[in-house]
Amino acid sequence: MNSVTFAQTSAAPGRPSAWTVARILDLYQLPFLDLLCEAQSVHRAHHPANTVQLSSLLSIKTGACPEDCAYCPQSARHETDGKQEPLMPVQEVLEAARKAKANGAQRFCMGAAWRSPTARQLDSVVEMVAAVKAMGMETCVTLGMLKEGQAERLRDAGLDYYNHNLDTSPEFYGSIITTRSYQDRLDTLERVRAAGVNVCCGGIVGMGESRKERAGLIAQLANLSPYPESVPVNNLVKVAGTPLADTPDIDPFEFVRTIAVARITMPRAVVRLSAGREDMSDGIQALCFMAGANSIFYGDQLLTTANPQVRQDQQLFERLGLKPAPADAAPSLEPAADHRSAYA
Ligand code: SAM
Ligand code: DTB
Ligand code: SF4
Question: Could you say which of 72, 193, 201, 263 is catalytic?
Answer without folding.
Answer: 72
